[in-house]
Amino acid sequence: MGNKITAVKTRPYADQKPGTSGLRKRVTVFQQNQHYAENFIQSIISVIEPAERQAATLVVGGDGRFFMKEAIQLIVQIAAANGVNHLVIGQNGIMSTPAVSCVIRKMKAVGGIILTASHNPGGPNGDFGIKYNISSGGPAPEGLTNKIFEISKNLQEFHICPELKVDISKIGKQTFEVDSFKPLIVEIVDSVEAYAEMLRGIFDFAALKELLSGANHINVRLDAMHGVVGPYVKKIVCEELGSPADSAVNCVPQEDFGGHHPDPNLTYAADLVNAMKGGKYDFGAAFDGDGDRNMVLGKHGFFVNPSDSVAAIAANITSIPYFQKTGVKGLARSMPTSGALDNVAKALQMQLYETPTGWKFFGNLMDAGKLSLCGEESFGTGSDHIREKDGLWAVLAWLSILATRKQSVEEIMKDHWQKFGRNFFTRYDYEEVDSDAANKMIKDLETTMFEPSFIGKKLTSGDKSYEVAVADNFAYTDPVDGSVSKNQGLRIIFSDGSRIIFRLSGTGSAGATIRLYIDSYEKDPKKIYQDPQVMLAPLVDIALKVSELQEKTGRTGPTVIT
Ligand code: VG1
Ligand code: CO
């Protein structure tokens, strides 16, 4: 007899709106509200046409955080009861976000469910998240996440096979009879293999092996921050490319990321920064919880700003064999990301796209053959090899450049600035601000910015003065499908091209996070080595004054500065 399908009555929740990247809430929200996870999983599966489900493959994986295993069992039970035919799950549930994207494409799946809250902390008091990706391997576009949200707001019941239990530790296929449907096939796969195979086709592994373990090898330090990327780093960089075992640290995924924020920036990856300062390592990198973000450091902790990182990869793109084969179809960055990539696009005569924050906006451009390489200031870098940003890919991209140019990270960046000029960039994050205060601040600022007299106005700090050229709330029309995304961030652009940007985060789980971004271009070779914080201080001061951020939120300083 097959597994029995039960229809369970439920009440809809009003707050299951996916943000920049999936639904993220405190673990306690998932645990304490009855059927909270079940409702959202049912809402996701409901967007797959019933007729399609009996031939459909869904990929499931996560970053190993607390509550992931429970969520995977629920996904299996709910997918079975909704007639999904085939599930592909990473062993023990482990699969990085880029690897899920890779496996969706490889298996020609209808989509995938990723259990992660990415860079947010985990554990019983941390965050959990559920994200849906489509058949291209990319995050569901806004039209689809809105549909999921609409379904969730009206959900009256979900279908589940409560008796069905799957062993996710054993690689191989398990088949389950399900009442009134074809048997469900659950396939547990190695977490790393398909992804490793893909990277072998993108990079020159022989050259990377020489760089990491040959006679004149460099020393690297890779910090997985107890996130999902650990097994990938171990297998690919240590075992296959020969980097010593101790060059990779914190490589065992932990449910609470060892109590830290798995967020690769100068604040939360301070251990790596300190380890690099000693000068023992030539190259360092850290990753976030789900392995899609990366931070790159050179010797002595030389910091590569993510906006510069994608620009440098673009300028050295021929170091990567993949692009020699595919050519470079176009470049893209999210709006708050600095204009460093624009300078490379201009010099190399490549098309450049400016999209709203969030990787989902790059997918259409890639599918349409318009985009090869893209990045975000938030430590996201990637290409059209998959449809997610890819932390380890970015590291191998940088190592490919080092192998080709035989120079240090610092030399490569300084040379880049000499050639293209430098975009000084900084981001201030104010985390867990009172939501009402944050919303009011943004609203008031928008009102100020939209006064006709604001354009042409001179804003000053000390002896520095900037004239407002453009003031708007960024809106984006997708060049491929024409869809419009409004309210993507307040921009004040000055006559010299410098920009101040304010937006509210869409990935936080408590209160509001205000992000302030500053971007200012300098082409005078004598001025490009200044400290960005010193260089940008007047613009920061102007931003704080014009927004009255401190007065309106009561916050005297940011939580994180990048
Ligand atoms: C942040 C970043 C954004 C990134 C998103 C998901 O969003 O700013 O660039 O795409 O996180 O990254 P927000 O809305 O909080 O600014 V991940 O690695 O957390 O999935
Ligand atoms: Co992430």
UniProtKB/TrEMBL annotation:
Sorted keywords for this record are: Cytoplasm, Magnesium, Metal-binding, Phosphoprotein
**Cross-referenced SUPFAM superfamilies, in alphabetical order?**
Phosphoglucomutase, C-terminal domain, Phosphoglucomutase, first 3 domains
Annotated region Disordered: the residues are 1-20
Gene Ontology biological process terms from the UniProt entry: carbohydrate metabolic process
Tell me if Cytoplasm is a UniProt keyword of this record. Answer: yes
Homology family: Belongs to the phosphohexose mutase family.
- Say yes or no: keyword Nucleus present: no
InterPro entries assigned to the protein according to its UniProt record, in alphabetical order: A-D-PHexomutase_a/b/a-I, A-D-PHexomutase_a/b/a-I/II/III, A-D-PHexomutase_a/b/a-II, A-D-PHexomutase_a/b/a-III, A-D-PHexomutase_C_sf, A-D-PHexomutase_CS, Alpha-D-phosphohexomutase_SF, PGM
Q: This protein is called what?
A: Phosphoglucomutase
- What top-level branch of life does the organism fall under? Eukaryota
Q: Where in the cell is it found?
A: Cytoplasm
Annotated Alpha-D-phosphohexomutase alpha/beta/alpha domain ranges read: 16-156, 194-299, 307-420
Can you name one GO molecular function term for this protein? phosphoglucomutase activity
Q: Where is the signal peptide?
A: none
Recite the lineage of the species. Eukaryota, Metazoa, Chordata, Craniata, Vertebrata
The cross-references to Pfam families, in alphabetical order and at most eight, read:
PGM1_C_vert_fung (PF24947), PGM_PMM_I (PF02878), PGM_PMM_II (PF02879), PGM_PMM_III (PF02880)
